[in-house]
Amino acid sequence: MQAYPSFTPTPGGMPPEVSNWFNTVDRDRDGKINADELKSVLVNAQGKHFSDACCRLMVNMFDADLNGTINESEFGQLYIYINQWLSVFRTYDRNQSGHIDEQELSQALQQMGFRFTPDFVKYLITRADVEKKNNIDVDQFMVLCVQLQRFTESFRQRDVEGKGEIQIGFEEFLRVALEVSL
């Protein structure tokens, strides 16, 4: 049987600092946070704001009522999720550069249960690395991992026999790609 990695955030109690962070991020004080508000406070190790794509992805993941914003409870779940990813990123950013290179990404993905060839890991870096530095920042890492997670879950649902292979038609393929895309 084919084993698939899964790294769903674990539920837990809300950290006490969540309300303070929520109020800081909610600039217009409407009780909701959109992707632009989130982007204004998320900064990577190089002092650059997280990408629009990453912030949209994170808001959409936790936006239970699909209104394009997250409330304080949803933000609390996002806060825990972001911190889990930061922890994973820091674990594999061994030289503390704020970037993960090909070798570090390969190790991180292996730890998550993925068994990709070196050529495919290089391809992933190339796709995620918008600045063409042969490494990825934390937000690029998060987007990449979330996309891999979504594709894996979608694949798993269709691989009912656990063989590690599926057969789908063109429209179903497009449906999967669109569901997983940002």
From TrEMBL:
Source superkingdom: Eukaryota
Keyword Protein biosynthesis (UniProt): no
SUPFAM superfamilies: EF-hand
GO molecular function, one term: calcium ion binding
InterPro entries linked to this entry: EF-hand-dom_pair, EF_Hand_1_Ca_BS, EF_hand_dom, Peflin/Sorcin_CaBP
Keyword 4Fe-4S listed: no
GO CC, any one term: cytoplasm
Keywords: Calcium, Cytoplasm, Metal-binding, Repeat
Subcellular location: Cytoplasm
Domain EF-hand: 13-48, 80-115
Protein name: Peflin
Species whose genome carries this gene: Agrilus planipennis
